[in-house]
Amino acid sequence: MISSTDKLTLATLRANANVGYLTAEQGSNLASEGFILVNPAVVSPDNPHAFFCQLTQTGIDAVDEKETKFTPEPMSQFPISADVPVPVKIKRESSPKTSKYPFDLLEINQSFHVPVSDECPEPWKTVASNVGAANRRYEEPDPSGEIVATTRRKLVKDADGKPVKGADNKRVYEVISTQEPKKIQTRKFIGRRVDTDDPNGPGCRVFRIL
């Protein structure tokens, strides 16, 4: 078995026109394997214990061979296995998006009330986005497959991706016209600001009207 040190020694001799000086410790194993020839009559001028050595053809072939047993294998902390089948991809079931507001529980002509509080001083503004999201959840493509023109608002952002604000310090939107399949609403919700005349007091009341 050739050690990594022996492999390096062979490579060094090959790079030095196939010759060099090796001590008995450095060359004995290589000589016994037939990779080098040693001439003990020629001593290194720098080391009296090192003798002239020359690569044999076996040694040259071993160094030059691209895929040789002397090529050190890359070390890895991860064990490599063969013949392990690729497992079937497991599809994770994503949890449906839910709202803290009971949209899904409302029947037609029912409603729920979101009161004014320290955490939500203007619920009619806070709940508005939730009402819009709930209405979108209950949109379905029209069976007719009709394509209709529609417009959407898109938030304008600067080069850094931050929302652009106008002179009134409000976010700027651009109107985009598109063509898309017609949709029908299976449920419809609206939110209304209410005051002390509401049974639950000031706040926002959300109604299901469809």
SSE topology sketch:
Blueprint (H helix, E strand, L loop, with lengths): L3 H12 L3 E5 H9 L3 E8 L6 E6 L1 H8 L46 E5 L7 H15 L1 E3 L5 E9 L17 E9 L1 E3 L3 E6 L8 E6 L2
Antiparallel strand pairs: 1-3, 2-3, 4-10, 5-8, 6-7, 9-10
Task: Explain what the structure shows.
The chain has 210 residues and is of the alpha+beta class. The protein is 21% helix and 29% strand.
Low-confidence stretches: 66-71
- What separation lies between the terminal Cα atoms? 83 Å
Mean pLDDT: 85
* Secondary-structure content class: alpha+beta
Elements, N to C (H/E): HEHEEHEHEEEEEE
Strand content: 25-35%
Count of discrete domains = 3
Number of helices: 4
DSSP E strands, number: 10
Largest sheet: 3 strands, antiparallel
Radius of gyration: 41 Å
* Shape category: rod-shaped
Q: Portion of residues in helices?
A: 10-25%
Question: Can you list the strand order of the major beta sheet?
Answer: 1-3-2
Brief overview, please?
By secondary structure, the protein is of the alpha+beta class. 21% of the residues lie in helices and 29% in strands.
Keywords:
210 residues; alpha+beta; Arc Repressor Mutant, subunit A; 3 domains; 3-stranded antiparallel sheet; 4 helices; 21% helix
